Amino acid sequence: MNPDSARTRDILYQTKAKNLCVGLALIALTGCASGSTTTLSRWNMLRDEGIAKGISKEEYQGNTETTAGNRFGPAGVIDYLRGKDRSQQRTNAAEVAADALKKSSGRDNWNIQQVKADPETEAEFQAAEAAFQQGKLAEARKAFARLAKRRKGTPFGESAQFYVAECEFQDGDFVSAHTAYEQLVADYPGSRYLDRVVVREYAISRQWLVASGMTVPNLREETSVSMTPGGYRDKGPQLMMPALPPTTPAPNTSPADKAKDPSVKQTSGEATNSVPTSAELASDLPVPPEKIPWYARLSGLLPSLDVRGHAIAALEHVRHHDPTGPLADDATLLLADTYFDAKDYDTASVYYDQFLSDFPKSPMFREAQEKAILTKVNAYIGPEYDSQSLDKARELIQQTLATYPDRPREEQKRLYHMLDLITDQEAERAFLVGDYYRRTGKAMAAEFYLGKVIQKYPNSTWAEKSRTMMVDVAKMPRKFTAPSQIMTQPGAADQMSINRGSSGAANGMNGINGMMGP
To answer: From CA 8, how far away is CA 127, in angstroms rounded?
Structure first.
């Protein structure tokens, strides 16, 4: 036997034995892949502060202060069955839950921000509030702005931010006030001032709409909200009108003078101002239209650009901040009226439909129905375009007549007149289609549509025109027109089909649903 080979064999055996011992030691320390707990893992768990410790021996036996009287394990099960568990002896579930929270964490675990007593902040807030009540708006605004920034996230900061917006509103700076109200909602979602914010933003939007030349109605009494805002202790500023410098009233001009003014729009032979008169406008606006100064766009009373667009944004904020509040239906209807006044009938129709679906119990529901019908009729451009708006208008009229059968006679006349207009438009569409086929030499198609007008709309002017045109169509030669290959259904007896026999009869087509297979 070769001694070198024997020595090599011994070295290999020793190496294998060492590797086997190391592997067994690693398995014992780290555990296998099945997740069993080993000595090393238990040692790490005991010294890992990020892992909750298990139940100690004292806690298991109920000898600690927090577990006194409540034992774990089999002894705890026996106590529960015998009715000795302390939590089972209470009838108040809230008390049991609170006791469990205190046991588990030593605190209430509720993220409620408690306002600590702060005499300095209290005195500063009272001084700013007194300045506001005395009409010193600039001084009060600076003080409240400092409080809102320093105590942000607290009830003090919330009240201060609301007062900042109120100072801007009372000072006549509606643009800054609207921005401050939005900042309040952004910083304090679900603020207790939300209903008052909505009222202010709705008033600002109405003011801007009037300034843009639109007529807006007065605020209904049932949608009014108490404007006695509460501070951090349910006290706050009283409702005051914004202070504006007096302006000289515009001189009265006669209709003849108005007619000479090139800036005045002439309608129906009468001279009417493009901006509605104050008698037609709402009388409950924050600032009467005749008192709006010429520098309103510079002082912040009106936006510098796109006054109506900013008013629409404010109305959208009213809807989004309080979608079920008393002003939600007013804001939605006013939005629809705004787009209708701008002759954007498609957008107005969307808002009217949304109003009808979201506020079926609103006192303005009937008014919104009639406006929605008028909007859909006006959205119809002509017979060369889509008639879907006419179909929706007819459906809505029928629904309105069925919902309110006892409506006044004048309203019923208006609705039936709308139906007559829709019917006339449908007759015109059918007549123009027949005329198209007549001009393209397709006599049979022309006779079909012209006959449809005569049969379906016999009393319309288009029926008389169809009868006259039918005389010319009757003299036209009848020629066969092969159907279009694009419009042919698979498996149809088509003259242009490639699957026809020599006699012209349609052959059976192979494949699924009569289609030719591969």
So the answer is: 98
Angstrom CA distances, 185 to 76, 100, 150, 201, stand at 51, 36, 18, 12
pLDDT average per 10 residues of sequence, the chain (518 residues): 65 77 66 51 58 58 54 52 46 47 42 61 90 92 93 90 94 94 93 92 94 84 44 35 39 38 35 35 79 90 93 95 92 94 93 94 90 91 87 90 85 88 91 92 89 90 91 84 64 53 44 39
CB-based contact 208:314 (threshold 8 Å): yes
How many whole angstroms separate alpha carbon 244 and alpha carbon 72? 75
Residues 6+ apart with CB under 8 A from 265: 272, 273, 274
Q: Round to whole Å and give the CA distance between 324 and 285.
A: 23
Among all chains, which residue has been given the structure tokens 């667009």? Answer: 309
Phi-psi label, residue 83: left if phi above 0, alpha if psi -120 to 50, beta otherwise? left
Rg (CA), the chain: 41
The amino acid occupying position 272 is T
Please state, in angstroms and rounded to a whole number, the distance separating the CA atoms of residues 125 and 299: 27
Residue 46 has a CB neighbour count (10 Å cut-off) of 10
Alpha-carbon distances of 232 from 162, 178, 398, rounded to whole Å: 10, 21, 53
Q: Tell me how long the chain is.
A: 518
The SS3 of residue 119 is helix
